[in-house]
Prior knowledge:
The protein has about 425 residues and is mostly helical. About 35% of the residues lie in helices and about 5% in strands. It contains 17 helices and 6 strands. The strands form 3 sheets. Strands 1-2 form a two-stranded antiparallel ribbon. It is globular and about 70 Å long. The N and C termini lie far apart (about 70 Å).
Amino acid sequence: MASTLVGHAQSVSASPSELKRGEYLARVGDCIACHSAPGGKPFAGGLALESPIGKIYSTNITPDKKTGIGTYSLEDFDKAVRHGIAKQGHTLYPAMPYTSYAYVKPDDVKAMYVYFMQGVQPVEAANKPSEIPWPMSMRWPLGVWRSLFAPEVTTDNTPVPDADRIAVGRYLVTGLGHCSTCHTPRGVALQEKATTDAGADFLSGAVLEGWLARSLRGDHRDGLGSWTEADIQALLKTGRNRHGATFGSMADVVAHSTQHMTDSDLGAIAAYLKTLPATDGKSVPLVYDDKAAKAMFNGTDKSLGALTYVNNCAACHRTSGKGYDEVFPALALNPTVNADDPSSVIHIILKGAQMPHTTTAPTQFAMPGFADRLTDSEVADVATLIRQSWGNRAPGVTASQVAKVRKHANVPAGPAR
């Protein structure tokens, strides 16, 4: 059935298969993660989203007619999802990733509309106003921002051939997957520097809410250059692989979205990501070096970083830095560890992390935080050791960098020594 992008919920007909597809596409888009508050009803909104200009609260997208989207026509829904324009006419904050959803095909938007109107339980829950101070809270500048930076909305309804794995992967990553929202650096106006792979900055990594959303390009040191398609697919399916594990908001993505995707779609995403060239044309694979492992194992390295690591980290990650496959992540040759920006490494040391619970890997291994146990200098010392041992080649970490992340992460102050 061809989409017309007109009509109201009561008049848009749909087959059971379209309803089911809409549910699947909503999973791919990970709508539930942002539009559900902790302890709240699914899709009822209320989740606080941090932005550089203040908190934004996600909205109720259940079909409740009073507080949700129950009165939205398909055209209203499409304008919000792909154009970034609310039913009331104002521009949405780009925390709603309409700059990615602009690439979603109209028929897929219709399937999602059908699901939200007919497959989601309505919940009466009033939307919360943002905590963005005036004058930044004014909406009209967002319209200017949208006209400058939002891509043209696609009208192409031609299905992507299932046999073309690269094309399927590109469609999922660029559109509903909205991977660039986190993994692409932003410019001075907070716009993504690229929304498709036509730009070299696309998926090259960015810091978001104190975490580093790492590069998904072909760099060996801090990207996916040394990962196979199977490695990428395993991480998206289970939240872990032989190289490491997901953490922070990416763990939520796996839990709510990617673990529910078909193996075919996950394989297509992996195949597509492997086509992205490295940002560094001279990128070469890192090579494991056992010097640090021997020094720590034999007790000949008396540096504060080594002593802190042996006392706090080695039991799980081992003096070899290799951890235990799919249980305690390897630190040696780990792309996140080797990234120029140490934000995620510092964040995990201070606050800890937890693997997602997935159907295929249900055990949730967790790392405790050390914010109340280690000083800023001690965290810097151990982070530097981790980033410069076992063949890792990343810049050292300073106490001032740790202090900055500690403040943003809202964790206890370190001990006084």
